[in-house]
What we know:
Blueprint (H helix, E strand, L loop, with lengths): L4 E4 L6 E4 L14 E8 L6 E8 L46 H6 L7 H5 L5 E3 L7 E3 L23 E3 L6
Parallel strand pairs: 6-7
Antiparallel strand pairs: 1-2, 1-3, 3-4, 5-6
Amino acid sequence: MIGATVVVMGSDPILGTTTDVDGRFAINAVPTGRVDLQIRMIGFEEQRMPNLLLTSAKELVLEVRMQESVAQLKEFEVKAPERKGELRNDMATISARKISVEETSRIAGGISDPARMVGTFPGVAGDPSGNNTVVIHPKACSGAWKVWRSPVPITSAMMVAPADRSTC
């Protein structure tokens, strides 16, 4: 049974280990004499093995059988901390700008469309045919493709491509 924790009770500092793929374990530097072991694993009842006699120059070989346990757990929710104002774009190495949904409605000509709104920024143009392609001008490229990712949910497909692929 892989991953069970085995601890020598009352040791200071705590001596312990986890079991390997075959359920085997070894704990080094345990003082000789009587020791108590505690074995734990999620989904199994805790096992305590008291008064095990550990002598010098001889391994103590144990066979431990774990009994499954069933427990009804309470519901819980995991939430990531919300980082307001912080950009989540690994591609933005020099600068980036976060665009909120509210902002798409305030920019003139944006008409609540992020693709149209970014077309108002320097170096960026929208496709004149009216689809949601965003074109980044060659002067905005510094030898690499620039990708614009938005935290704004976009309902239609949106592509980002440099205007002149030979220079980007």
